[in-house]
Specification:
Blueprint lengths: L4 H6 L8 E3 L5 E6 L2 E5 L6 E7 L6 H16 L7 E6 L2 H6 L25 H16 L4 E10 L8 E4 L8 H9 L4 E4 L7 H9 L2 E9 L12 H11 L12 E10 L6 E2 L9 E4 L3 E5 L2 E4 L4 E5 L10 E8 L3
Parallel strand pairs: 4-5, 4-6, 6-9, 7-8, 8-10
Antiparallel strand pairs: 1-2, 2-3, 3-5, 7-9, 10-16, 11-13, 12-15, 13-14, 15-16
This protein binds zinc ion.
InterPro entries: AspA/AstE_fam, AstE_AspA_cat, Aste_AspA_hybrid_dom, SuccinylGlu_desuccinylase
Keywords: Arginine metabolism, Hydrolase, Metal-binding, Zinc
Catalytic activity: N-succinyl-L-glutamate + H2O = L-glutamate + succinate
Length: 324
């Protein structure tokens, strides 16, 4: 099973037995579809959740996690931390879709309870239970890296989204993000219902959503484009020291949000621009009934522009670079 964890997940098969010890000595427990805990034989003080496929069509990170699990099982990659590997939305993965009914990454922190008939709601609940159970037994450092790929190109090919939290992030978090080939970091300033906000706010984990490149179907990914990310993950899993010399990511703060208040919402700047496209002060970005958004800072950049979202949802974020 550990050689092809993804196969079991996509076919909704349960391995028999559901726990064991791999040839490498790594102990494993199958906690449900797409949920696998791996731990080294000795006690460790770092606990990491690694998730992918929260959006079912973002296949490259899913394939990366599949390959990492296989290497941890065979011993090709030594395991020095405890890790919970989660493949998020298996039915959407099988269907080749981002989601079936609703975006799973908007359903955490209990938000799924408001959508009882949505296909994704039970999955959000199951993932929350798995993370809670994993961190309940965790004394020491807690991490959660949620791996994604983006629909549109980006000025910065790989970037991280850090959920809002009151305490500042430790400096080594940015060094690790640099080691994972992340060149920009976006700080959220408000609460949300994302998976990483859940881990951060409810389980005190250092959590980051990583956008690692472009969406492609299963088998179509050129995983060499993700080699530096994979190398960074291998270092983290095997407890190796941080590589030196990677440039620190540029840091951006959210300064505005484009809200789709009605079907008359218009993204004036178009909808095909890359993430982090910059606009000068005064540029009219979006209009809606009795609402408009114009750039108020010297320069603002747009992230995740999407005028097609449902009314009432966020149609984009505006960010500015932090001067350090
Ligand atoms: Zn995604």
């Amino acid at each position: 099973m550990l050689e092809d964890f993804l196969h079991f997940t996509l076919h909704n098969e349960t391995p028999e037995p559901t726990a064991g010890t791999a040839p490498s000595g790594v102990r494993w427990r199958w906690l449900g579809q797409g949920m696998l805990e791996l731990s080294p034989p000795r006690q460790v003080d770092t606990h990491m959740v690694l998730s992918a496929g929260i959006h079912g069509d973002e296949t490259a990170p899913i394939e990366i996690l599949r390959d990492l699990v296989a290497d941890l099982a065979s011993g090709a990659l030594p395991l020095a931390i405890r890790v919970l590997v989660l493949l998020g939305n298996a039915p959407a993965m099988t269907a080749g879709k981002r989601y079936l009914d609703d975006d799973l990454n908007r359903l955490f922190c209990g938000a799924y309870r408001k959508l009882p008939h949505c296909a994704e709601s039970p999955r959000a609940a199951a993932l929350e239970r798995a993370v809670a159970g994993f961190f309940d037994e965790a004394a020491g450092a807690r991490w959660h890296l949620d791996l994604h790929t983006a629909i549109r190109p980006s000025v910065f090919e790989r970037f991280a989204l850090l959920p809002h939290r009151t305490a500042p992030y430790r400096e080594d978090v940015f060094d690790w993000l640099a080691a994972l080939d992340i060149s920009a970091v976006l700080n959220h300033r408000e609460q949300s219902n994302t998976f990483t906000y859940f881990s951060c706010s409810q389980h005190n984990a250092l959590a980051a959503t990583l956008e690692l490149g472009k969406v492609m179907p299963f088998g179509m990914n050129d995983l060499t484009r993700f080699a530096k990310v994979t190398d960074g993950l291998r270092l983290m899993l095997s407890g190796q020291p941080l590589p030196q010399g990677a440039p620190r990511p540029r840091i951006f703060d959210v300064v505005g949000q484009l809200d789709k208040q009605s079907e008359r919402f218009v993204l004036v700047v178009g909808s095909q621009m890359a993430n982090f496209t910059a606009y000068p002060k005064g540029t009219l970005i979006a209009t809606d009934d009795g609402y408009q958004y114009a750039v108020a800072h010297e320069e603002e950049r747009i992230v995740f522009p999407n005028p097609k979202v449902k009314v009432g949802l966020r149609a984009g974020l505006m960010v500015v670079e932090r001067v350090v």
